[in-house]
Design goal:
The complex is a heterodimer of chains A (158) and B (412). Chain A has 158 residues and is of the alpha+beta class. Chain A has one domain (3-150): Sufe protein. Chain: A (Alpha-Beta Complex). Helices cover 39% and strands 20% of the residues of chain A. The radius of gyration of chain A is 14 Å and the shape is globular. The N and C termini of chain A lie far apart (33 Å). Chain B is α/β, with parallel strands linked by helices. Chain B has helices at residues 11-15, 43-55, 66-86, 100-115, 134-143, 163-166, 189-198, 218-221, 246-250, 286-302, 304-322, 350-358, 372-377, 394-411; strands spanning 24-25, 28-29, 31-32, 94-97, 121-125, 146-150, 171-177, 202-206, 225-229, 240-244, 262-265, 270-272, 328-331, 340-345, 362-363, 365-367, 383-387. In chain B, strands 4-10-9-8-7-5-6 form a seven-stranded mixed sheet, sandwiched between helices. At the A-B interface, α1 of A face α12 of B.
């Protein structure tokens, strides 16, 4: 087993891909974002509910895809529940840096998400890891209603 | 078909002709099973390119100096070589293009633009590569023509019993693949061409997966157009050809304008050369054409019947061994197939499988293979594909099985 593979597919990541957390439909979602990665057909359907303060009160997802995209969505939802919009955007940027940059040190605020750092050795898998995050970014942008995004869309954040 | 026993050929020795195959990937010997995407190049082709640039490089059809004459001769000899390789009646029936995709776009734009009318139908199949689908969608949008599709059966073959209701007189062109790049299905080309002709439709064969793998004779097949790429058959990237039956090719207008394709030009208008030069505006890929001719010489030196037999044997062996794995589903025919196997495994997504395999030096492709409608047809978003060529071995397939077994353990 190569070191890179072990770093990419850590036990926690495989566990989240096999038993994704927050997996299911969010009945009273304010926003529903359908995201897909056209390169591989991976899909996520992300439901978000905002609290009175505008933060993420609840977040759930369904869909299918590779271990990386499923684990990323699972870890992300677990981390983002209850966070303010500002915190979510901070984490989005930090997570993007984590999976793309060779030098950035993983910030502590990412918690378990830091386990995804192995993705940076596999540039062709970055989109898998970012799919759920792109969906949450879109959810924040529109605040209500339903929309469709893809990993090929241009995004505001890096 | 002329039979050459594959046992008479030293396949192991042929591997020595491919310098790239000697390398290690992450400490493991490279196993290259992505031949349906592009093949590797033998030294003979690499030498031909080098020789051309070192001894003959000049522009073609215009210089009166010695090098230009040499380059022109080599380029036109390559055209003749392609014509004889495909069994065309004349070299004038061969247009050099960048590959299959450009060949099909040429037909869609030059033929479709001139002859297609509102209400006409282009018949395709559900198993077409995007390169034999998207150009026709663009054409249909521009002309009001409609697209129709021959369905694919569960076993990966075409639902030929539905042809009578699909292949009607409104059909002006029937365009289909020779070998499916995801399923490995080998379509009955001669029969399909004959049926197209019976209703007055032209036929176009996408030979991307077949040109380097089995004998092709366009006159025996009875096709009107045939498109292929050099890079999937030992030649460099960026070169391929379109075969067009002379009578049809001559009736088509140019599709790209520029130098090389004209007889005379005034500020207002131009007169164009005959086919095939009418379709080759600008300086062509001269070195590529020469490389393609060298690749043809190389392949013919082995013999296409022997290559086909060898690859079919490998693909059959791969299917047999893959069937031993748990949670395995293979797409495509169970019997005779082209040199590839596409599959999905319960244990892991194609991208996880191919990433895993790559760590052991095994190059496969995971994804939709430019076949999104076909993937939907089979209820999958993508597959893992192992595709073979004559330099691959059974030992490599055994190693693939070991790696996939390790992947099952890892991901389960």
């Amino acid at each position: 087993m190569s070191l890179e593979l072990e770093e990419l597919y850590q036990d926690v990541i495989l566990d989240h891909s096999r038993r994704p957390r927050n997996f299911g439909n969010l009945a009273d979602a304010a926003v529903l974002v359908h995201g897909d990665n056209p390169a591989c057909g991976d899909e996520i359907h992300l439901g978000v509910k905002f609290g009175p303060d505008g933060g993420l009160q609840d977040i759930k997802f369904t869909g299918h895809g590779c271990a990386i995209s499923q684990a990323s969505a699972s870890l992300m939802t677990a981390k983002l529940k209850g966070k303010s919009r500002v915190e979510v955007m901070e984490m989005l940027r930090a997570f993007h840096d984590l999976v793309t940059s060779e030098t950035a040190e993983a910030p502590k605020m990412l918690g378990d998400l830091r386990l995804m750092q192995g993705v940076r050795k596999f540039p062709q898998r970055v989109k898998c890891a970012m799919l759920a995050w792109r969906a949450v970014e879109q959810a924040l942008r529109q605040s209500a209603g339903e929309s469709i995004i893809s990993t090929e869309t241009d995004f505001v954040t890096p | 078909m002329h039979q050459v026993a594959r046992a008479d050929i030293d396949w192991k020795a042929l591997r020595e002709d491919f310098p790239i195959l000697r390398q290690q990937i992450r400490g493991h010997p490279l196993i290259y099973f992505d031949n349906a995407a592009t093949s590797q190049k033998p030294r003979r082709v690499l030498d031909a390119l080098r020789h051309y640039y070192e001894h003959e490089n000049a522009n073609v059809h215009r210089g009166l100096h010695e090098l230009s004459l040499r380059a022109t001769e080599a380029y036109e000899n390559a055209r003749q070589r392609v014509a004889s390789y495909l069994g065309a009646a004349s070299a004038d029936e061969i247009v050099f293009t960048r590959g299959t995709t450009e060949s099909i776009n040429l037909v869609a734009q030059a033929w479709g633009g001139k002859f297609l009318r509102d209400g006409d139908v282009i018949l395709l199949t559900e198993m077409e590569h995007h390169s034999n689908l998207v150009p026709w969608q663009l054409l249909a949008e521009g002309t009001g023509a409609r697209l129709r599709f021959v369905p694919v059966r569960d076993d990966g073959s075409l639902a030929l019993e539905q042809l009578p209701s699909l292949l009607t007189p409104e059909v002006k062109l029937f365009a289909f693949t020779h070998i499916s790049n995801s399923l490995g299905t080998i379509n009955p080309v001669a029969e399909l061409c004959r049926k197209a002709r019976a209703v007055g439709a032209l036929s176009l064969v996408d030979a991307a997966q077949s040109a380097g793998h089995l004998p092709i004779n366009v006159r025996e097949l009875g096709c009107d157009f045939l498109a292929f790429s050099g890079h999937k058959m030992c030649a460099p990237t960026g070169i391929g050809a379109l075969y067009g039956r002379a009578e049809i090719l001559d009736s088509l207008p140019p599709w790209h304008g520029g130098g090389e394709m004209i007889v005379s030009v005034t500020l207002e208008k131009s007169a164009f050369k005959k086919a095939p030069h009418r379709f080759e505006a600008g300086t062509p890929n001269i070195a590529g054409a020469i490389g393609l001719a060298a690749a043809i010489d190389y392949i013919e030196g082995i013999g296409r019947p022997a290559i086909f037999e060898h690859d079919a044997h490998l693909a059959g062996y791969a299917a047999e061994r893959l069937a031993e794995l748990p949670g395995m589903r293979m797409l495509g025919p169970s019997g005779q197939r082209g040199a590839l196997v596409g599959f999905v495994m319960d244990a892991a997504h194609p991208h996880d499988l191919t990433t895993f395999a790559d760590q052991y030096g095994l190059a496969m492709r995971g994804g939709h293979h430019c076949n999104q409608p076909l993937m939907r047809r089979f209820g999958v978003t993508g597959t893992t594909r192992a595709s073979f060529y004559f330099y691959n071995t059974k030992a490599e397939i055994d190693r693939m099985i070991e790696i996939l077994r390790a992947a099952v353990r890892f991901f389960s």
